[in-house]
Design brief:
single chain, alpha/beta, Aspartate Aminotransferase, domain 2, four-stranded parallel sheet, 4 strands, 43% helix
């Protein structure tokens, strides 16, 4: 029996004229980086998120790398990241000479918990990257309290939960 999980081609066919027109417009104008479509996307995202600022990146990996670089961490510093995530969440940590420390997630939510963060904490821990998954937010209030108590940074990876609301 063949089980089809996601029909990406079928989804494309449903919106083919819009997708093809958008691609054609970008190619014809050669505005591949920071062109009008990117600026329009940023403005729409700001409005959608109710945010004052948006910085567009080519992908979530770049966004995480920029965020980590902004913290001026030193090689050998540890960054806690969930074991259940896309590889980029841990990849950028290693690329910068930092040490990824993987923690288990809660099996009901697939998100990190403070109890698991506590187990991974060491004197070298400088940051946590909670990854919001499947459209649901991590329980950020206790995570932020934990980070404040221990003087560590928090970088939220929201690539898979844009628009999710933390309540």
């Amino acid at each position: 029996m063949k089980l089809q999980m996601v029909d990406l081609h079928g989804q494309y066919l449903n919106i083919k004229p819009e997708v093809d027109a958008g691609i054609r417009q970008v190619i014809e104008t050669s505005a591949f980086i920071n062109g009008p479509q990117v600026k329009e996307f940023a403005e729409n995202l700001k409005a959608y998120m109710g945010s004052k600022y948006v910085i567009t990146c080519g992908n979530g990996t770049d966004a995480l790398q920029i965020a980590l670089m902004a913290l001026d961490l030193k090689p050998g510093d540890e960054v806690i990241v969930p074991a259940f995530t896309y590889v980029a969440s841990a990849e950028v940590i290693g690329l910068l000479g930092l040490i990824p420390v993987m923690v288990d997630v809660d099996y009901a939510t697939f998100n990190v918990t403070v109890s698991n963060l506590e187990k991974a904490l060491s004197p070298k821990t400088k940051a946590i990257i909670p990854v919001h998954l499947f459209g649901q937010s991590c329980d950020m209030e206790p995570i932020m309290q934990f980070a404040k108590q221990h003087g560590i940074y928090v970088i939220e990876d929201n690539a898979q939960a844009i628009g999710a609301v933390y309540t």
